[in-house]
Design a protein that fits this description.
Elements: H1 2-16, H2 30-38, H3 52-63, H4 65-74, H5 83-89, H6 101-112, H7 116-119, E1 122-123, E2 129-130, E3 134-142, E4 148-157, H8 161-182, H9 186-189, H10 191-206, H11 208-221, E5 228-229, E6 242-246, E7 251-252, H12 256-261, H13 266-284, E8 287-288, E9 296-298, E10 308-310, E11 316-317, H14 321-335, H15 339-348, H16 358-369, H17 382-395, H18 405-421, H19 427-443, H20 445-462, H21 466-528, H22 533-549
Parallel strand pairs: 5-10
Antiparallel strand pairs: 1-3, 2-3, 3-4, 4-6, 7-9, 8-11, 9-10
Helix pairs in contact: 1-8, 3-4, 3-5, 8-10, 13-18, 13-19, 14-15, 14-19, 15-16, 16-17, 19-20, 21-22
């Protein structure tokens, strides 16, 4: 019933803002066009005072955080979404209506166990920014002498947001189960696994202690780096629903005019964005997976060698070593236009069935990817490529990999960001050298030496035990040899015994036949009047033979 009520609310919001008017009806099948034309909500007029982008934004805000996240992704895709809609959806990145200030302050005091005036030298009740999950307030900490100290931001989770998210997740699970049950592609797409991964991700985002630990790990990974700066986290002021961190004053990455005004090297900025992504995915296997423009800033210092600043680390992703290796090899094969290798890697990794014909699969991949090579980013839409690849995968029964969904989402964000910053970015020449370096580091002599250094302390620790272990192994081998010899002897004795038993049975059978023959001859001689000793003699010989063999 809860799912039905939520579905009813979604339909209500859909019809209230007449989102059906955004659907390209002319591209739909005739049956769906007739259905939309006869739909009862067409009796409601389209709100004339609201543009289509504003209607979509308001609808997503009304439906809650999961739908807002979807709008944030769309806001980074000007290649797929019209400009007026993108402009409105950008407001979902940090301009969602805030919740009441008194609720935020009460939650901070409840979580930290002291009053606001005791915690902060200064605190702004009006939020700096408000997003789908939480909002942030400006504040200052106390110095040791009681004066106003470091500037910080206080992040507070929206009250009651867990109930809304759980309701939407249950609806998604219901839809996933229906997809598995009634769709031919249900099992291949793995919707239940994807929803479960998203559940884990979104609940991790609700726990600000997890976000703080993610931010600390990213800061450790990029310590003293010119590429990325992560604000400090103040753990003594951090709980599950409240987090306090350093306040930064960068330029929002979507503010292209401000970046140009300070003479930012836009080409280097775009290339460094790509390098940060690949470094997180392949070097660290720990990547920021919510990189929409609202979470990314550019430092005002050194505009010719620009540095990124990232916030909001509630969603992070990671890959296994196997997935890292297969992904890197796949991408290098893409860059080298070795489609046969791409197809073979998909089969080896189990992403497509082992029965797939490599030549047919490689030909299908070539048809999708060949047109995009040696083009600037402005002329390439990875969104379109992904759609075509999914269509190709469907033909070859490729299963969706849930562990790669976050990575695909982040790739879309990176593409949208790069398109805004420097449309002429050559993604191939930027990414390919990095991947080639990573593969050399991963499998070359240096990697072997690093692995030797990593294992050496354990080997040294176990070195005193090695003679005893070797002696024990040799003793077990000797015992094994003795056991095998004894076993072989027993087998030979058994074979001899079986052979003797067969010989005895054969001789007993011959003796029985001899006795029988003697008795038969004796009976015949008696009946025909022939001397009797012949048959009796033969029978006696048979009896004697049996006695001797017994």
């Amino acid at each position: 019933m809860a799912n039905l009520w939520r579905l009813w609310k979604i339909l209500f919001v859909f019809t209230r803002y007449r989102l059906d008017s955004l659907v390209p009806v002319e591209q739909l099948p005739l049956s769906l066009r007739i259905l939309l034309w006869l739909a009862p909500w067409r009796l409601n007029p389209v709100p004339s005072k609201l543009g289509r982008g504003e209607r979509l934004r308001l609808a997503l805000e009304a439906l809650g955080p999961i739908f807002i996240k979807f709008g944030q992704i769309l806001s980074t895709r000007p290649d797929l979404v019209p400009a007026d809609i993108v402009k409105e959806l950008k407001r979902l990145q940090d301009d969602v209506p805030p919740f009441p200030n008194d609720q935020a302050m009460a939650l901070i005091e409840e979580q930290l166990g002291r009053r606001i005036a005791e915690l902060f030298a200064e605190f702004s009740p009006q939020p700096l920014a408000s997003a789908s999950i939480a909002q942030v307030h400006a504040a200052r900490l106390f110095n040791s002498d009681g004066s106003a100290g470091k500037e910080v931001v206080v992040k507070v989770v929206r009250p009651g947001i867990e109930h809304t998210i759980e309701r939407d997740l249950q609806l998604l699970e219901t839809m996933a189960r229906l997809l598995v049950k009634y769709s031919a592609d249900g099992r291949r797409l793995k919707p239940m696994e994807i929803v479960e991964d998203y559940r884990h991700t979104i609940y991790g985002e609700l726990n600000l202690s997890i976000e703080a630990s993610n931010a600390t790990q990213l800061k450790r990974n990029f310590r003293d780096s010119e590429l990325l700066y992560m604000p400090d986290v103040y753990w003594e002021y951090t709980r599950t629903k409240v987090m306090v961190s350093e306040r930064i004053y960068g330029i929002p990455v979507a503010d292209i005019d401000a970046l140009h005004a300070q003479n930012t090297n836009m080409k280097l900025l775009a290339e460094r964005g790509v390098e940060i992504f690949f470094t997180q995915v392949f070097r660290d296997s720990f990547f920021h997976a919510d990189m929409h423009p609202g979470n990314i800033f550019v430092s005002r210092e050194h505009p010719q060698t620009p540095q990124y600043i990232a916030i909001d680390c509630g969603i992070v992703g990671s890959l296994t070593e196997e997935d890292q290796t297969y992904l890197a090899m796949n991408m290098l094969a893409f860059f080298n236009q070795d489609y046969h290798q791409v197809a073979q890697l998909h089969i080896d990794s189990g992403w497509v069935p082992a029965t797939t014909k490599v030549n047919e699969f490689s030909a299908a991949i070539r048809a999708v990817l060949e047109p995009i090579f040696e083009k600037p980013l402005a002329e390439i839409s990875f969104g379109q490529v992904l759609i075509q690849l999914f269509s190709t995968a469907r033909r070859f029964n490729m299963e969706v990999q849930p562990q790669l969904v976050l990575l695909q989402k982040t790739l879309l964000n990176i593409e949208g960001l790069g398109r805004q910053l420097y449309p002429q970015l050559d993604l191939w020449s930027t990414a390919k050298p990095f991947l080639e370096r990573w593969m050399r580091d991963r499998f070359g002599p240096k990697a072997a030496f690093r692995e030797l250094k990593r294992q050496l302390p354990g080997w040294i620790e176990k070195a005193p035990q090695i003679p005893g272990l070797v002696h024990g192994a040799l003793t077990r081998l000797n015992h094994l040899d003795e056991t095998q010899a004894s076993l072989h002897a027993e087998i030979r004795a058994l074979r001899e015994e079986l052979h003797q038993q067969k010989q005895q049975k054969r001789q007993q059978t011959m003796g029985t036949l001899t006795i029988g023959s003697g008795l038969f001859v004796w009976w015949q001689s008696f009946a025909l009047g022939v001397p009797e000793f012949t048959g009796v003699g033969i029978a006696a010989a048979g009896i004697l033979l049996l006695l001797l063999r017994a």
